[in-house]
Amino acid sequence: MPLPSYSTPATPTTPLAHVVDVFRPRKNRFRATAIALLSLVALSSYIVFFAGPSLSTAPLALRRQPHPDRPSAWQQFAMNYAAKYAGSAVDATEQRQHVVLDPAQELAALTAFMAALPQNVLPTSVDPAQPLDPQLVLDFDTRSPGASDEVVEVVHDAWHRNPVVLFTKSRSSVSRELKAYIDALNLKPAQTVFDVDERDDTSVLIPILYRLTGATELPILLVGGHYVGDMDAVRSLQQSGELKSLVTSAGATVDGRRRKKGRNH
Question: Does domain 103-264 have CATH number 3.40.30.10?
Fold first, then answer.
């Protein structure tokens, strides 16, 4: 009876078996090709999965040259920084309050404003019962840290330049009488005269003057920035000779100039 023959079962073939089989000594001719292929696959995988994201986040200077008309990153940063802090400085200025004038300072600022130019007039929208907006009568930033010091200078300069000031009516006999008293003193510097009824801001100026001086009617005489009083008081000073002493103490010189009328505004 013939013996049964047994054949060795075929070993299943897998991809891993093929890879292992490549490295067997009997297949040396394929070894170099396989190693090169695996190296290429590994390098491609590294570029796709690892090097790609890094290159995408590389600095702009490594990827492309900047446009010659565009600022560099550092220039843009400096511009943004300067704009930020310049804006902060503007905001700080806007948050500061305007300087507040007391009645004496308000009167000096108003007089200096009117004496500076004949066309300097107050808006008719001004409320005479309320303090004047300092921006209307002062020519500097009234919110600056040194605004208070500048107001002091304005007050001093106003009465130094205008030691004797008259607010009058051009067609008033009492105003003409006051002008005659002052003209007779021949002052240097000459008296500053405002014919209030000929100004465009008459309707607001007169009540403002009443509020600041305490006067109840025109004319108003200021000597050294102070209201002298009504015409009865002026006549009394004129008759006693005290009017000369008063204007002299304010800085004006009696008989100090050639005979001519005062400065009209």
Answer: yes
